[in-house]
Amino acid sequence: MTDDWMINNQSSQNEPHVMDLQLKQNCQYSLLVPTSMGVRITPVNGQPVHSSHLFEMQATSAETNVASIASYLGLPVKVLTTFVKGSPIAKFIKSNLKSRHMDYEGPEVAQGDPWGYRHQFNIADSGYGSRGPRVQNDRSGEVGRTLNVKDFDLERIFGEEGVQIVHLSGLIAALSPETSAFCLEIARAAKKHGTRISFDLNYRASFWKGRAEELRKNFTEIASVADILIGNEEDFQLCFGIEGPEAGGQGIEAEIEGFKGLISNVKKSFPNASVFATTLRQVVSTNEHLWGAVMLAGNEWQIIEPRKINVLDRIGGGDGFVGGLLYGILKGWEAEKWPQFGWATGALATTFLTDYAQPADEEMVWSIWEGNARVKR
Predict the structure, then answer these.
(1) Per-residue pLDDT averaged across 310-335, rounded?
(2) Burial call 62-89: b when 16+ CB within 10 Å, e when fewer
(3) Can you give the three-state secondary structure of 275-288, one letter per residue?
(4) How far, in Å, CA of 168 to CA of 188, rounded?
(5) Which of 25, 29, 142 is nearest to 87 (CA)?
(6) Which residues contact 95 (CB under 8 A, 6 or more apart)?
(7) What is residue 45's DSSP assignment?
(8) CB neighbour list of residue 67: distance below 8 Å, 6 or more residues apart
(9) Which residues, 6 or more positions from 177, have their beta carbon under 8 angstroms from its beta carbon?
(10) Nearest by Cα to 314 from 275, 265, 276, 281
(11) What does DSSP assign to residue 6?
(12) What element of type H or E holds 123?
């Protein structure tokens, strides 16, 4: 496990500021992610869905996309989820999680009648060139909506097994009233036992429809105890009503300054958080993006101005960034390296047809950061 660590930063007034983000020691798991697992159906050869006859299927979820960086690089990861009892899709998902070096636990829910529970389907092509990718989520009867705290022994998970960081996603926190309560209880248990909390807001308008007041209250409680907050300007504005300064110009510099102003306002509302981060993306074409990131750790900004990456499939790039960022924190690196590694793992994810990156080792990731694509023999 990682050693205790502390990062010294300098404030804008050149006064010393210490960001204390020590990680709990002697834990069975470095990273824990609650999630609703599903499958993605993708046409082969970059073709659109409506004209395709041949498809590939993969197990997927945003939260396990994040956790894959740590799991493939050797850190112990656990997934909390739920399965459809006796389903071949559930068996497919379990095999996939094992192949990704992840432990998992969760109840098995009977399908019921033909209109009962199932794992969600994500039908998405990769796009190509000037034709952007299209995604259709089919979540009817999604078994993940039944995630309930009564099915998990949080005292055992956080108190006996031990977890260094739990990563929560707004996708799960907003999926259903049951999952909202589930994420709240996980945040409370994590806080009680000294586990650090990462929260990616992931606002989705369709999830919030008719539930805005309830979800804002729940999201606010989770964010108030979170140590790491991740989201773009829209996420913070729509989840919490926090506005940034009016745009003073156009282009990437104005976007970065706007995010800085927004985070200054967010910090006033959520002073417990020590780290704030977002990605920056400009789409030149489906297969060429400008990719960057912004992070505030303590009082120190880390800016990665967008630079060109080549994209095979963009799905999971943002999750890859978060996974790399959390990996850097778990490894006890200096703060400057967190978004650098995250930038590179996000870029790496876009070179895979799976929604998650599968780094062979840290060297593969740092070579991407350095722009070194030479053959390694």
Answers:
(1) 97
(2) bbbbbbbbbbbbebbbbbbbbbbeebeb
(3) EEEEEEEEEEECCE
(4) 12
(5) 142
(6) none
(7) G
(8) 31, 33, 77, 79, 102, 167, 323
(9) 211, 214
(10) 281
(11) -
(12) strand 120-124
Cβ count near 369 (within 10 Å) = 18
Instruction: Spell out a b/e string for 96-127, using b for 16 or more CB atoms within 10 Å of the CB, else e.
Output: bbeebbbbbebeebebeeeeebbbbbbbbbbb
- 119, amino acid identity: H
Hey, what are 106's tokens?
């969760």
What are the residues facing 77 on neighbouring strands?
A: 31, 102
Neighbours of 17 (CB within 10 A): 15
Structure token pair of residue 172: 């799960």
Confidence of residue 243 (pLDDT cuts 50, 70, 90): confident
Query: What are residue 20's phi and psi, to 5 degrees?
Result: -95, 105
pTM: 0.93
Q: Name the residue type at position 50.
A: H
% of the chain beyond a pLDDT of 90: 88
**Both tokens assigned to 337:** 């390296």
Q: d(Cα 15, Cα 89) in Å, to the nearest integer?
A: 56
Work out whether strand 300-310 and strand 288-297 pair parallel, antiparallel, or are unpaired. Answer: antiparallel
DSSP-derived secondary structure for 66-119:
HHHHHHHTT--EEEE--EETT-HHHHHHHHHHHHTTEEEE--EE---STTS-B-
Element (H, E) at 42: strand 38-43
343: left (phi over 0), alpha (psi -120 to 50) or beta: alpha
| Residue 220 burial (CB count, 10 A) | 14
Closest CA to 359 of 329, 304, 316: 316
Separation between Cα atoms, residue 278 and residue 86, nearest integer Å: 39
146 close to 34: Cβ distance less than 8 angstroms: no
Specify the pLDDT at position 12. Answer: 35
Residue type, 269: S
- Give residues with Cβ within 8 angstroms of 357, minimum separation 6: 68, 69, 72, 316, 320, 323, 345, 346, 348, 349
For residue 151, pLDDT over 60 is answered with yes
Burial profile 275-288: b = 16 or more Cβ within 10 angstroms, e = fewer:
bbbbbbbeeeebbe
Structural contact between residues 65 and 320, judged by C-beta atoms closer than 8 angstroms: yes
Whole-number Å distance between alpha carbons of 75 and 70: 5
